[in-house]
Amino acid sequence: MTETPSPAFVFDLDGTLLDSVYQHVLAWQRAFAEIDIDLAVWRIHRRIGMSGALLAPRVARESGHELTADERDTVEQLHGEYYRESLEWVRPLPGARDLLVGLREAGVPWVIATSGKRSEAEAHIGKLELPGDPEFVCSEDVTHAKPHPQVFLTAAARLGVDPSQCIVVGDAIWDLLAGQRAGMLSVGLVCGGYSREELERAHAFRVYLDPADLHASLDELGVTL
Predict the structure, then answer these.
(1) pLDDT digits 0-9 by tens, 173-202
(2) 3-class DSSP state of 45
(3) Ranges of each domain in the chain
């Protein structure tokens, strides 16, 4: 009898492997304030997980402001600057490194897929202190960002794995929507700030607290280390 291979994993980065969501939220809030748009942090948080090019105009529109192209570029640039100021406070989420190392040692393929820019992704992944150079997909590798499925489909192609054999792990409903559209099972983590109920409504197959909880529960996903 032929043994069924383990699924491959496609991991979101911010809020999934790294505790960085609220640094992003506050950086966006400061950036919007620079163009005289005062936003509550909860409005911004609801859109975290989208690319900046999608997040900025949508959040502004909810406040009754239509961004011009120059305003959008300014807000995106300022967000990047303010976020980099807080980068030293970004930490791996509990169990993130052990999960990734454990999967690799067991021969289970995985890749990181983020809506962030390459320089930001490289700085973030460096905080995980992983051996070697982990494979990742970022905004420069695709033309459409989450919730479009392209970033996850590109990640599966990097692994050489059919999307149907991949499990997306993310903390935001936008991750799960993109995973569903890519034809992948999705697992939600509440450590990015979305509730279990929200993630389940977005069709999460399972929901866990953080990477450590997922690591301890891999058998529920058909993975044995």
Answers:
(1) 999 999 999 999 999 999 999 999 999 999
(2) helix
(3) 8-19+91-221, 21-88
Active-site residue, 175 included: no
Q: Is 49 left (phi over 0), alpha (psi -120 to 50) or beta?
A: left
Determine whether 2 is exposed, middle or buried from the number of CB atoms within 10 Å of its CB (0-12, 13-18, 19+). Answer: exposed
* 14 part of the active site: yes
Which fold is adopted by the domain 8-19+91-221?
Rossmann fold (3.40.50)
Q: Which residue has the tokens 């192209």?
A: 69
* Termini Cα distance of the chain: 21
Is the bond into 147 cis (omega within 30 degrees of 0)? yes
Candidates 2.120.10.80, 1.10.150.120, 1.10.150.240, 3.40.50.1820; CATH matching 21-88:
1.10.150.240
Q: Which two tokens stand for residue 224?
A: 């044995």
What is the Cα–Cα distance from 112 to 93, expressed in whole angstroms?
15
pLDDT in tens, 64-123: 889 999 999 999 999 989 998 988 899 999 999 999 999 999 999 999 999 888 888 898
Record the pTM: 0.91
